[in-house]
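[Meeting: bench + compute handoff]

Bench side (C.D.) handed over the final construct sequence. Compute side (W.E.) agreed to return the predicted structure before the next meeting so the bench team could plan truncations. Sequence as handed over:
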Amino acid sequence: KTALGGYFVEEEKVIIDNSKGKAQIVRKEITKRYIPPSVTMQIFLAKNYFPDEFKDRQEIEHSGGITNTEIDLSDFTEEELRDLAKMDKSTN
């Protein structure tokens, strides 16, 4: 009911007079207040009832081959290799 359409509720407000040292009820007011539909509930309903159209998960296909991720370090000097090792330790 609250997910698809809002609804009205009646609220009672009591007006009290404290001016004479004793609390006295002056009057009661009844008002109608509109409660809007729940957007969060609509999202959950859409995900559960229509999972093909409303889903959080995205499916990704990889169409390329596996690439070689090895790096040729033979041209690096010993000092450059030490610097790389230091950089690797500082990021982990």
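W.E. noted at the follow-up: Strands lie at 7-17, 24-35. C.D. will use this when planning the next construct.
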